[in-house]
Automatic annotation (TrEMBL):
Stored InterPro entries: Aldose_1/G6P_1-epimerase (IPR008183), Gal_mutarotase_sf_dom (IPR011013), GH-type_carb-bd (IPR014718)
One BP annotation, GO: carbohydrate metabolic process
CDD domains listed in its UniProt record: Aldose_epim
GO molecular function: carbohydrate binding; isomerase activity
Entry protein name: Aldose 1-epimerase
Length: 300
């Protein structure tokens, strides 16, 4: 077992609890009602800390999903990422994946109650982090559990005149306990599908994705999307259970990931599409104006 302290949040209006581990990157490891767990446990917390194997609800920061190469340019400068240093991890093809905050221990708790937890990371005060993302800012994450809903709010506040690219996301693995994935009904909103190549990178093509509610059956997903309307709700339902992931604010892109070896699906809110840090397809947080994003997971 990991020695990292876990914080349990309790819903004031239900028996739902959530577990957050601040010193392991502010990862949410559990959302449960008694014995019923709604987050995918995958390989567990230790594998996340030691090997970057995602589970629960990890943050992907400062970029979500993959980059097509280990360099990106901005304002005429080129940033070179060095795999294995500064938190940079690569996938099986050697391209950077999921940012640099996997299991990062530098978060400081700034506020805590029975059902809320807020932590702050001064990115500008960490040379190790600035080496791969040279944009000083303060990153704040607030997690709230109320009305059977876990809400994650993320604020990026620039601390210099330099604007901060917003390319991050989260990787929530959700599940319906006791119900095989083949029996789940997956509900998705209208959006734009962005096909990927065999490295999981966008091909540049796109097609319309109609709103739908379909049985998952044997379908596997590793699909990217953009043009996700603000306020969109994704859901899985089966038996008497339902889990909703709502893209409440600031997440116009998404990834759906249903792996072959586990009865989970990741419904991933993203501030920008895959490879945005290289393509330039993102928005900024500008000096003096914090940008806040928000998504939620409701389990019933």
């Amino acid at each position: 077992m990991s020695e990292f302290e876990a914080v349990t949040l309790t819903d004031p209006s239900s028996s739902l609890t959530a577990t957050v581990v601040p010193m392991a990157g502010m990862i949410v490891t559990s959302l449960r009602d008694g014995e019923h767990e709604f987050l995918g446990q995958r390989r567990g917390l230790d594998a996340y800390i030691t090997a970057g194997k995602t589970m629960g609800v990890p943050i992907l920061y400062p970029w979500a999903n993959r980059l097509s190469a280990s360099k990106y340019g901005i304002n005429g400068a080129v940033v070179t990422l060095t795999p294995g240093t500064g938190g940079v991890r690569t996938d099986e093809h050697g391209v950077p994946i999921h940012g640099v905050l996997t299991g990062y221990p530098g978060w400081l708790i700034s506020d805590r109650s029975d059902n809320t937890l807020t932590a702050v990371l001064d990115y500008g005060g960490r040379p190790r982090l600035l080496a791969s993302f040279p944009f000083p800012h303060v990153l704040t994450q607030r997690v709230t559990l109320a009305d059977r809903t876990l809400t994650v709010e993320t604020t990026v506040m620039p601390t210099t005149a330099a604007s901060v690219p917003l390319c991050f996301g989260y990787h929530p693995y959700v599940q319906l306990p006791g119900i095989p994935r083949a029996e789940w009904i997956l509900t998705t909103p209208p959006m734009r599908h962005r096909p990927t190549d065999n490295w999981g990178l966008p091909t540049g093509a796109h097609d319309d994705w109609q709103a739908s509610s379909e049985p998952m059956g044997s379908t596997l997903y590793d699909d990217g999307f953009d043009q996700v309307p603000e306020g969109s709700v994704f859901a899985i339902a089966g038996g008497e259970r339902r889990v909703e992931v709502a893209f409440l604010k600031g997440y116009p892109a998404a990834q759906l990931f249903a792996p072959p070896n586990d009865d989970v699906i990741a419904i991933e809110p993203m501030a920008a599409p895959t490879d945005a840090l290289r393509s330039g397809n993102y928005r900024f947080a500008v000096a003096g104006k914090p940008e806040t994003t928000r998504f939620s997971i409701t389990a019933t």
